[in-house]
Amino acid sequence: MTTRWSSDYNAIEIRDFDAHRMAIDYSGCIVMLAGRKKYGLVEIYKSSNILFPRTCKYEIKALEWNPTYHNQQLCALSQNTQLQLLSLKNSVSLSSSIRFCTHTRAILDINWHASDPNILASSSMDSYVNIWDIRDNSRPALSLSAIIPALRVRWNHLNKHLIATAHGGEVKIWDQRKAANPIHYITAHLSNIHCLDWSYTNENQLVTCSQDCTVKFFEINNRKKAKNILNTVTPVWSAKYTPFGDGILIVLVPPEKRVDNNLILWNLGSINSPVHTFVGHSDTILEFQWMRNNEDKTSEYEFITWSKDQTMRLWHIMSFLQEMPLDYIEKSSEDNLDNDQNSSTSETSDASIDALNETDNVNFDNEGQDGSFCVSASEDSYNTEKNEEPIVNLYQEFLSLNVGSEIFIEQKDPDRRILIALVKVNNNSITIHMTFPLDYPLNVEPQFQITKTTYDASMKNKIHKILYDSAIKQVSKNLTCVQFCLRELVVSLRKSRISFSESQFSEDDKKMYSQSPSHYERTSTYLSNQDTYNIIQHNTMGLKFCNNGALLWFNSPLKRKSDFFPSISLQKIDSANNTPLQKLQPYWFSNKNSPTDGSSRSSKIYRKDKPIVSIYDVSSLFPINKDLASKYELDVSNVFSTCLKNAWITNGFKRKDLVQTWTLAAYACNTKCNVKKKVTSSIDQINNWRNHPFTIHMIDSLIAHYAGHSDYQTAALLCCVFNPNPALKNIEQDRTPTPVYTRSNSLSEGFTFSRGQEESTECYEISDQGLLLEDSDSQKNMYYDVYKKIYMDVLDNLGLLDQQTSVKQFLKQQTQKNSVFFYNFVVDCLQCYNSVKVGYCLPCQKFNLKCTLCDSTVRGAAHVCLKCGHGGHANHLIRWFSKEPLCAVGCGCYCSFETMSLLYIKRCDTKED
Amino acid sequence: MNMVPMTGLILNEHEGEVHDAELDYYGQRLATCSSDKTIKVYSINNGNKTLLANIKGHHGPVWQICWSHPVSGHLLASCSYDKRVVVWKESNDWFNIFEFTHESSVNAVAWAPHQHGTILASASSDGSIGVHVFNKEWSSKSFSAHHNGCNTVAWAPYKELLFGSDQTDFGKKLVLASGGCDNLVKIWTVENDQWVQVGEINCHTDWVRHVDWTCTIGDNRQLIASCSEDKTVVVSHSDDYSKWSSVRMHMFEGRVWTVSWSKIGNVLAVSAETNKVSLWKEKTIGHWVSCSEIDDTKVVED
């Protein structure tokens, strides 16, 4: 358990010095302090201080002495965007030696390399972490880029290549040798990390501490979750490993007005309770640092702290704290306890409450009624924590209340057992009046009364319920509940802001909300609260194929050379086709790449921090060619000439392989043999090809070959040319209009081509003009349809819609299916019962479509019910059906409903296609 | 092998890192999303690009975007660290027409094949997958998929005909694959209005980052490529959706970030952490070879 005593043995007070940064040098004698108006040197053992005034309006954000013997005179400090090295001469004067000015925004943190005297890392708001070699100040030796600026940067104490950076709640581990990307990525905390430190004993271990009141220990090779978590009641300002043993020293961000006891030493072997609390400072501790008192090896470890109370304190860790096993410390602390108790003032007892509250599993032992109590420091306290209920009286609970910025305690009176709290969330406020029954918190919850609120009644009930539920939850375990309840309330109120409808907020609120610049901040705090444990590090580069065959590459480059062009090596995917290899390049912007403006571009646009998106035209990788697609002919009335034309087209694109294919195809279906007369001897042969039993197989295998090599273009076209739809062919030959027929008063069932029996005759008919693949093999037909569909998809992507439609005509399946949607309304003449097309019967000289409402002839816009066939002038019908559901004739048909349902079903069918 | 220097780059105007970029269906518009909380839409006609829109509205980095098929009206779906999935529609300006809030950061969005209708899937770090259907109005359903976080989703391609299979409607089913922090790829389908797991690919040893699904033409194998933090890319194939056999395609030097199938030819594009991108092609079944490489590390002076 915790022991506390004041063990500093040297306190230096420096009045009227607003220093907020402190650094101690290699020797451990000289401390540099930096404030807004002054900075200066303090020699610890001589108590002499030399102060210099500062004129720069920027604060010194970071300050660090070089930790190596070799460069021990150097001190690095940063103000705004500038990194400056000061050199100490004769322990009295500082001379500015080097300035680094590459950062574009304020520098947030700096850190010297642990072993290399010339290496320094700095992180800045501009999101870069630069690593400098101080011998070359013109540019950083290395620049690490992250999305979010690094608040902290730390070199590994043992491994000279590793560096850790903290970005908000995340930690990135970088290896100098592979600086392009972090080698590890840890989503460590829910809110900002205040400090991180590497272990002195294991190069893979690091500790982080954060605003979210936790200290977490990580093993970088097993980075998915923290190895150990230390929970505290207040945010942790700083945490550093001890240079000895396996310990850690943390500084807590003090709760208001009680600031003296936030420096705590823990043993990592047992992080259930702190080993030691260092008491002395009367205000917030701003900085602490271990001293490297290397001259005196035998001495105990020391560290130095600088606090807002303008004193610097030197503490030493007594050897028993360093070396003794834990239980020994327990005992010794118990011995010390008496001292502590005797000398305890009310202030220190407050402090001990706080110290005890550090962890949830610390036990209280309430002795007596006067508010003073002691620590039960028995060894078995670890084991008994579950059996022993921590009962705290109201006085203690009120004292230890630690609420967020949204909650204001207006009144707390432990004697009258009341507490009044004001909660302000999102421009709404609520005042809660709590009264505590005597038995509280032993399974008795406090009474809540909401006295004043800007929320409406329903919200008020909700709030009451939240308070009541959370109180019950706590007191059922005999735990105190005030803090828990209030925090739960704030969390749920914040959430309601985001997820509930806006209606619950008044207009004024909305206005304020939309105008307030803090809106985004607020949301971002909200966001930072989410559990970021398992969120992957998102891609900063990627490569993906887009629909139209383009390859999209994006990258958010980390560090690039001034001129940077990724080069592409490429091998033809399908070597079976002898397509010439085309250059792989992005298909736009190429016009801007003329050599004349090349130089200006590289200097101007190629800023290293700009993400790139580039698009490669990888159509050369694939056998489908857009230009060919737009040129290919698909005239099946003369297959032979179509094939020849296509051969000619491919020749224009220097695709010799395809020229051969198409020529071969042309010969295969040649009927008249009027092509190349010069090879007279082989004319007969050519002539005979058509009738050769293998010709059909040849075309089949050609199609299979191209399909097998993903050349669906050629495959689909061959399919189309050699296996046209008999129906389509039929139509084109006969030049008959679409043979769809309906009767006037009944709905067409559509038209389906029956192919079964007629097929043979049609085949025969068509084969006069060319050669037909067998149509009987349905399996093969399905394949052919698939090729056509793929090709259609590609054409669709390429925007070649005409071509797509012409291929679509050849789909076998589609014809059957599509016929369902063929509607042709035909009106029967009322006299002669012949169907008329234009609504006018020539022989009878009569208009046939009569409006059912006005009984006059319809010449303009007409509307007809698909079910009953009644209809008339569109505007008449619109008026009728706006009031009536039934047909005007009285046939009992719900016209609008029936028509709609019919059409709707059809539309669903269309979708499937 | 031919080395071709790349001669042009598109520099993006985003303030932060670009996390995703996609061309629309006709390849005329490019959308990019970034850590700077915005989505930018460019027109890329006529050899140059013009910024059409800068869509603001997310409160956190935007992780992924996805264009829908034109039949749904060129919708743009985006997902962000702010836990939201948003569907944007253009009418003069871009408007947010649908929004869904997950419990945690949303890592991926994907539109289902358009034949199924307007359906969007989203994967979130809270471990759930949300399926959002537009049928006159939006309705959402979410189910828990990977207990400690879901990183990616991909839909099965729509196939009208699957030969050699007795079930004719097989390729028309709504099926999706998801990858998550439990190192698994899971296959889901709808049964009785509920999403149920029908298959599982368990061959990664670390978080699965990205999956992509394609279907070969001809022999109709379902192919799922998955990449993971364990530096491997695994290609799994199946004839139904339940039994998957996997082949480890390659072990890369760094974590593999994305995999993407080409629309035709089954070429797989892989990008890995070390700025390496490469294209892969199956030579014989189960045997993959790299057929091209875009090498970032080579620096060619201008």
Task: Name a few traits of the molecule.
heterodimer, A: 913 residues, alpha+beta, five-stranded mixed beta sheet, four-stranded antiparallel beta sheet, 23 helices, disordered C terminus, B: 302 residues, mainly beta, disordered N terminus
Provide an overview of this structure.
The complex is a heterodimer of chains A (913) and B (302). By secondary structure, chain A is of the alpha+beta class. In chain A, strand 31 (418-425) and strand 32 form a beta hairpin. In chain A, helix 15 runs antiparallel to helix 16, helix 16 (712-722) crosses helix 19 and helix 19 runs antiparallel to helix 20. The longest helix of chain A has 21 residues, at 778-798. By secondary structure, chain B is an all-beta fold. Chain B has strands at residues 2-5, 10-11, 18-23, 29-34, 38-43, 50-56, 62-67, 76-80, 84-91, 93-101, 106-111, 118-124, 128-135, 137-144, 150-155, 175-180, 185-191, 194-201, 208-215, 222-228, 232-238, 245-251, 256-261, 268-272, 276-284, 287-295. Chain B has a four-stranded antiparallel sheet, with no helix packed on it. In chain B, strands 7-8-9-10 form a four-stranded antiparallel sheet, with no helix packed on it. A four-stranded antiparallel sheet of chain B has the order 11-12-13-14, with no helix packed on it. Chain B is globular. At the A-B interface, helix 9, strand 34, strand 35, strand 36 and helix 10 of A face strand 1, strand 2, strand 3, strand 4 and strand 23 of B. Strand 36 (567-570) of chain A pairs antiparallel with strand 26 (287-295) of chain B, so a sheet runs across the interface.
